[in-house]
């Protein structure tokens, strides 16, 4: 099952659990800012921002079914389907971009870099990037599957879930290199609960273009 087919198939039942660090985000992004959520799923994070008084919000996801769920659940949000690759926004047009548990769904280094380059393109100078994602774990269950899928997927830390999705956990060094085009404001390791109810190392990052 490819990634889009997987996310379409689970769009009605998956609940995303990684926490949005609202207070930290508010320290850097004003309420009148134009904010784009790239890989927004069904709009959970944008809804949190809306409840805080943010109104200039737009979300993009490649899953038609996720966007359809979001439009039904949060009809006041501007949610759009995007194709993989280009973000349908003009150069230097947004004040902040949110990338929420998206890197874990992108296995390839090159594809991750392409996305980060696109985000850099659409952000205004001084614009804020908020990222959260998953870091490598050292428990036996994770170490076993990292090794099992290393050759097949071409990267250490990537693996296939029983239901067919392919996901990736990252080294902190990889994340810092990937985001080196942004001035780091905050980088904090955290413990997350995954969408399947397991515990995992994670992080959130706030940087400025």
Explain this structure to me?
The chain is an alpha/beta fold and 209 residues long. The protein has one domain: Rossmann fold (3-Layer(aba) Sandwich). The chain contains 7 helices and 9 strands; from the N terminus they run ααβαβαββαβαββαββ. The strands form 2 sheets. Strands 3-2-1-4-5-9-8 form a 7-stranded mixed sheet. It is globular. The protein starts with a helix and ends with a strand. About 5% of the residues have low confidence.
Question: What is the structure about, briefly put?
Answer:
The chain is of the alpha/beta class. The protein has a single domain, classed as Rossmann fold (3-Layer(aba) Sandwich).
Can you tell me the CATH architecture?
3-Layer(aba) Sandwich
Q: What ranges have pLDDT less than 50 throughout 5 or more consecutive residues?
A: 4-14
Return Rg in Å: 16 Å
CATH class: Alpha Beta
Instruction: Going across the biggest sheet, name each strand in turn.
Output: 3-2-1-4-5-9-8
Fraction of helical residues = 25-40%
- Structural class estimated from helices and strands: alpha/beta
Mean pLDDT: 90
Question: What is the molecular shape?
Answer: globular
Discrete helix count: 7
Structurally, the number of domains stands at 1
What's the end-to-end separation, in Å?
Answer: 36 Å
Determine the CATH superfamily.
Answer: Vaccinia Virus protein VP39
Number of strands: 9
Which features would summarize this protein structure in a list?
9 strands; single chain; two-stranded antiparallel sheet; Rossmann fold; globular; 209 residues; 7 helices
